[in-house]
Write a structure and sequence with these properties.
The chain is mainly β. The protein is built from no helices and 8 strands. The chain is globular, with a radius of gyration of 14 Å. The N and C termini lie far apart (about 50 Å).
Length: about 130
Protein backbone atom coordinates (compact mmCIF):
# COMPACT_ATOMS: atom_id res chain seq x y z
CA UNK A 1 0.00 0.00 0.00
CA UNK A 2 1.37 3.41 -0.94
CA UNK A 3 1.76 6.24 1.54
CA UNK A 4 0.83 9.01 -0.90
CA UNK A 5 -2.25 10.06 -2.87
CA UNK A 6 -2.55 11.66 -6.30
CA UNK A 7 -5.87 13.17 -7.43
CA UNK A 8 -6.82 15.56 -10.21
CA UNK A 9 -8.66 18.48 -8.60
CA UNK A 10 -10.91 19.02 -11.64
CA UNK A 11 -11.62 15.36 -12.49
CA UNK A 12 -11.47 13.43 -9.22
CA UNK A 13 -12.98 15.94 -6.77
CA UNK A 14 -16.68 16.86 -6.89
CA UNK A 15 -17.81 20.48 -7.22
CA UNK A 16 -19.73 21.00 -3.95
CA UNK A 17 -21.15 24.46 -4.72
CA UNK A 18 -24.29 23.21 -6.55
CA UNK A 19 -25.23 21.00 -3.58
CA UNK A 20 -25.38 24.20 -1.46
CA UNK A 21 -27.39 26.04 -4.14
CA UNK A 22 -24.50 28.43 -4.93
CA UNK A 23 -24.19 29.56 -8.53
CA UNK A 24 -21.13 31.41 -9.80
CA UNK A 25 -18.70 29.37 -7.71
CA UNK A 26 -16.84 26.13 -8.31
CA UNK A 27 -15.71 24.70 -4.95
CA UNK A 28 -13.79 21.44 -4.78
CA UNK A 29 -12.70 20.33 -1.30
CA UNK A 30 -9.86 17.86 -1.87
CA UNK A 31 -8.89 16.97 1.70
CA UNK A 32 -10.88 13.73 1.92
CA UNK A 33 -10.04 12.68 -1.65
CA UNK A 34 -6.33 13.14 -0.86
CA UNK A 35 -6.64 11.32 2.49
CA UNK A 36 -5.25 14.41 4.25
CA UNK A 37 -4.80 14.02 7.99
CA UNK A 38 -3.12 17.34 8.89
CA UNK A 39 -3.99 19.77 6.07
CA UNK A 40 -7.09 20.97 4.26
CA UNK A 41 -7.07 21.86 0.55
CA UNK A 42 -9.69 23.26 -1.79
CA UNK A 43 -9.78 24.54 -5.35
CA UNK A 44 -12.11 27.50 -5.93
CA UNK A 45 -13.11 29.28 -9.14
CA UNK A 46 -15.31 32.39 -8.99
CA UNK A 47 -17.16 33.75 -12.02
CA UNK A 48 -16.50 37.43 -12.86
CA UNK A 49 -17.96 39.69 -10.15
CA UNK A 50 -19.05 36.81 -7.89
CA UNK A 51 -18.82 37.55 -4.16
CA UNK A 52 -19.12 34.80 -1.57
CA UNK A 53 -22.58 35.07 0.01
CA UNK A 54 -21.08 34.75 3.51
CA UNK A 55 -17.99 35.53 5.55
CA UNK A 56 -16.42 32.95 7.80
CA UNK A 57 -13.98 32.42 10.66
CA UNK A 58 -12.50 29.28 12.18
CA UNK A 59 -11.98 28.11 15.74
CA UNK A 60 -8.58 26.55 15.04
CA UNK A 61 -7.74 26.48 11.33
CA UNK A 62 -5.31 28.97 9.81
CA UNK A 63 -5.78 29.36 6.03
CA UNK A 64 -3.57 30.40 3.13
CA UNK A 65 -5.14 31.45 -0.16
CA UNK A 66 -3.01 31.40 -3.33
CA UNK A 67 -4.40 33.15 -6.42
CA UNK A 68 -3.57 31.01 -9.46
CA UNK A 69 -5.66 32.93 -11.98
CA UNK A 70 -7.61 36.14 -12.44
CA UNK A 71 -7.95 38.79 -9.78
CA UNK A 72 -10.31 39.97 -7.09
CA UNK A 73 -10.60 41.26 -3.56
CA UNK A 74 -10.50 39.69 -0.13
CA UNK A 75 -12.28 41.18 2.85
CA UNK A 76 -10.36 40.59 6.09
CA UNK A 77 -12.11 41.93 9.17
CA UNK A 78 -12.81 45.58 8.34
CA UNK A 79 -10.17 45.79 5.56
CA UNK A 80 -10.45 44.96 1.87
CA UNK A 81 -7.34 44.07 -0.13
CA UNK A 82 -6.86 43.70 -3.89
CA UNK A 83 -5.64 40.32 -5.14
CA UNK A 84 -3.81 39.41 -8.34
CA UNK A 85 -2.30 36.24 -9.75
CA UNK A 86 0.29 34.59 -7.47
CA UNK A 87 -0.65 36.63 -4.41
CA UNK A 88 -0.67 34.50 -1.25
CA UNK A 89 -2.70 35.55 1.80
CA UNK A 90 -2.40 34.01 5.27
CA UNK A 91 -5.51 34.40 7.44
CA UNK A 92 -5.55 33.55 11.15
CA UNK A 93 -8.53 31.51 12.40
CA UNK A 94 -10.38 34.35 14.16
CA UNK A 95 -10.33 36.83 11.23
CA UNK A 96 -13.63 37.06 9.32
CA UNK A 97 -12.99 36.68 5.59
CA UNK A 98 -14.81 36.68 2.26
CA UNK A 99 -13.75 36.80 -1.40
CA UNK A 100 -14.94 38.60 -4.52
CA UNK A 101 -13.87 37.97 -8.12
CA UNK A 102 -12.63 40.69 -10.44
CA UNK A 103 -13.81 41.25 -14.04
CA UNK A 104 -12.01 38.16 -15.39
CA UNK A 105 -12.93 35.90 -12.47
CA UNK A 106 -10.81 34.52 -9.65
CA UNK A 107 -9.18 31.12 -9.33
CA UNK A 108 -7.41 30.03 -6.15
CA UNK A 109 -6.15 27.24 -3.96
CA UNK A 110 -6.98 27.37 -0.25
CA UNK A 111 -4.85 25.51 2.28
CA UNK A 112 -5.86 25.09 5.92
CA UNK A 113 -4.14 23.60 8.94
CA UNK A 114 -4.73 21.88 11.15
CA UNK A 115 -7.35 19.90 9.28
CA UNK A 116 -10.36 20.25 11.53
CA UNK A 117 -13.29 18.94 9.52
CA UNK A 118 -16.89 20.14 9.91
CA UNK A 119 -17.80 22.31 12.87
CA UNK A 120 -14.66 24.49 12.95
CA UNK A 121 -16.10 27.29 10.80
CA UNK A 122 -18.63 29.96 11.71
CA UNK A 123 -20.43 31.48 8.72
CA UNK A 124 -22.15 34.87 8.64
CA UNK A 125 -24.54 35.42 5.73
CA UNK A 126 -24.29 38.62 3.65
CA UNK A 127 -21.09 39.68 5.39
CA UNK A 128 -18.90 42.30 3.72
CA UNK A 129 -17.63 45.40 5.58
CA UNK A 130 -18.66 47.80 2.80
CA UNK A 131 -22.27 46.55 2.77
Amino acid sequence: MSDFTIKNLKEDVENAAPSFGIQGLEFRSASAALDCTQTGLSYQRYEPGFRTPFGHTHDAQEEVYVVVGGSGRISLGDEVAELRQWDAVRVPPETMRALEAGPEGLELLAFGAPRTGPGDAEMVQDWWPES
